[in-house]
Design goal:
Layout (H helix, E strand, L loop, with lengths): L1 E5 L5 H10 L4 E5 L7 H8 L9 E3 L5 E3 L1 H12 L13 H23 L8 H27 L11 H9 L6 H7 L1 H11 L5 H7 L3
The structure holds glutathione (GSH).
Glutathione binds next to helix 3 and helix 4.
Protein name: GST N-terminal domain-containing protein
Pfam family, one: GST_N_2
Organism: Lacimicrobium alkaliphilum
Length: 209
Amino acid sequence: MYKLFGEPGWGSALIEAQLQWYQLPFEFESVGDLFRSHGARERLTRVNPLAQIPTLVMPDGQVITESAAITLYLADITKSDELVPAADSPERCAFLRWLVFLIANIYPTFTYKDDPSRFVTDKSAQEDFSKNVGQYRSRLWKIVEEAVQTEQFPTNRSFSALDIYLCVMTRWQPGRDWFAQHCPAVYNIARRVDGHPKLMACWQHNFPE
Ligand SMILES: N[C@@H](CCC(=O)N[C@@H](CS)C(=O)NCC(=O)O)C(=O)O
């Protein structure tokens, strides 16, 4: 049995969707709001020193963090290429490029913007920092949009874990309305994945209407 430390709607949804997809048995442990509850952060630190979710404990007790590492590892152990294109697949190269783009460029904008006081002490500087990180994030999403429109992003051709990332991350700031207006191709993928029959239970848990 896997144990997924998470919080509905947060980054654990990326992994919950994949565990459900592969039908791997797991227990979900809600950690609480890491930004509001000191206790939540302290409890998670015992398993993941960075106190981030997703944090996954494997059936043999090993801990794995970092959603991209988990994504690749789950594909390895299930020996499935349904969510991660196989090493010799023509889509592998673009898959890896954009998976790492999402987690190495876009995901950290949340780390910085969700609580800027961790990085900038002065209150008014925090506001400026937060605004600039938000603008930078918009620029990053527009790069993804361009890649989807020009078919460099592999998701137009076949379903993969990238579709799950787009579906979940477009729920976060600046939110779906912004995507509908500024990144319509990304938005359309997210809407399509919202209705994927294999993922309905996960979306209901994480994003109840
Ligand atoms: N690189 C990590 C990022 C995970 C992450 O930033 N998760 C957020 C929740 S969506 C978090 O735990 N934030 C708490 C914090 O920033 O302290 C991954 O891809 O799993």
